[in-house]
Amino acid sequence: MKRTIVLALALILTCAAGASAFEIGIGAEYMFYTTGLSHNALLTLRAWPMPFQLGLGATFGSAPSFSITGDWWMKAGGISGSPLGYYVAVGGFVTLPDFTFGARVPIGLQLWLLGDLLELFIEAVPYAGLDLTPSTAGIYGVGLGAGFRFWL
User: Fold this and answer.
1) Weakly modelled stretches of the chain, pLDDT under 70
2) Consecutive H or E run containing 121
3) For residue 147, what are the β-bridge partners?
4) Which of 44, 71, 72, 113 is most enclosed, with most CB atoms within 10 A?
């Protein structure tokens, strides 16, 4: 029992020390999809300088669903002499309970406010995938999103 507690504390301290090397971005986004997927609200998580971003989404109402997105930022940068930035990423998505999965390519524009504490962003996300419920069908379209992230 004591060994388990000591190992758990060591793991927590290691994770905390590792996390201090990153800036953590936590935010929210609303995504409107043109076809194939339900519009949803997402919680976004990112640890800079890692190029990976995680999104956890949900749609509530008559047909609730949940989604997970993961994007690898291929290119990101600032626009010279302004608080604007941009990014291009490649990633994937999965939705449940109707099992849908596929690939996505987020292309975004950022506005940095309060130094680098608050990021506002808009993005266009072309996507393609398969909807396996109730029968297999291809889906494709463009998602349009807007959101914010606070950086800690």
Assistant:
1) 1-20
2) strand 118-131
3) 29, 121
4) 71
